[in-house]
Structures are given as structure tokens and as C-alpha cells.
Amino acid sequence: MEQGRIELPHEAEATPCEDRAAPRFTLLIRAAKLIAPSGEFIAVIRDVSESGISLRGFHPLPAGDPLMLELQTGERHRIEAVWDHGSETGYRFLDQVDIVRLIAEAGRYPKRQLRLNIAFPVELAFLGRRVAAEVVNVSQQGARIECSELLAIDQPLRIVSDILPEVRARVRWRKGDVHGLVFDDTFSLNQLALFAAGAQDPGLMDGPRCKVSLRR
Fold first, then answer.
1. What digits encode the pLDDT tens for the residues 26-44?
2. Where is the PilZ domain positioned along the sequence (predicted)?
């Protein structure tokens, strides 16, 4: 899949938000991170106003309280759900939002790939050996891991686990026991979203449109 491209589930458009008190702006499709009690999940912004926002997921989006929306600039907004139409959910902002700043994707940090803070054990396979490690966070392009083994910069290896397809990667940087890995083949946003849901809240994967292989 072409890097950076977003594929949405093939479903009919959901009913527009009933709350039209504030003007709404339809955005270019943009990925964001929904932080819920059960974990961190990928969603796509559909439209936004000063009072609220609608998100579409690659699976049913998690419920619960509190909920936080994190943009690719690192900006965070407290939100709560007000309606749910299956693949699309509407939320209201709990604090005042600068809508111009949000649409312009202006933030404290430059726009970057979404990183999901999901921790799980893995094995690193290289040079005929297997070494225990733990993934700390993961994105479409790479992961941060903790490993007591000193890994060389540019070291090629395979990441093996029960919940993630085998991934070929290389060591990009290291700092003590923490290493940054870059994947040889990146995940699509859809694959990463489904992996995150399955790893953190498996009940979200019960729908038929979630039966997508994570294999590349």
C-alpha cells in the first residue's frame, strides 16, 4: 500500500451529526489517535466544529470515560461521545478549541506519524539467535523497544511475537537499553489500527469488516 494513504472501511456514509449549532468544516481525511480507558486507537477525522468532531474508525471505536483526542501534531483535546452510528462516532469538546489552529494542524511539534503506546513482549531474531525484548510503542514505520542486549546500529533483525506478524527491521538508534527500530516494510494505517484494537480491546474486532489479515 502507498505510504501515508488512508483507506476507510467500505461502508455507506453515516448520518451527519445532529448538533448543528456551530458551523462544521469538512476536512481532508486526517488520522488521529483516540485515547480511551482500554488503550490507544487510530481514527480518522471526518468533520469538525468549535463544539465537536466526528471520527470514523477501521473498527467500532471504544467507549468509556475519559476520552482524549490526540492529533498528529501532538495536540490533545478532551472529548465525550454524543452519538454513534456504527463506523462513525460524534464527540463534543469538553474545553474550548481553536478551530482555525486545529484545521491548520498547527501545534507545538511538527506533524508526525502516529505512535501508539502499546507494550508487549517480543523476540528479536538475528545471527541465529533469539533475544527477549519488549515493544514500548509502535507506528506504521517502526517501533521503540527495550532490550538488555546491545544491538548494533543498522543491525538487521526480525521481530517475532504472538500478536504481531513477523516484521523485518533494522536498528536506527539506541540509548542504553532503549532502541529505535525502522521496519523494512511499513504497515498500512488500516493494518496498524486493527492490530491496536486486537491487542488492547479484542471485542472491537467482532464485526465482519474487522476480519482483515494483518499479513503484508
1. 655 789 999 999 999 999 9
2. 19-94, 113-188
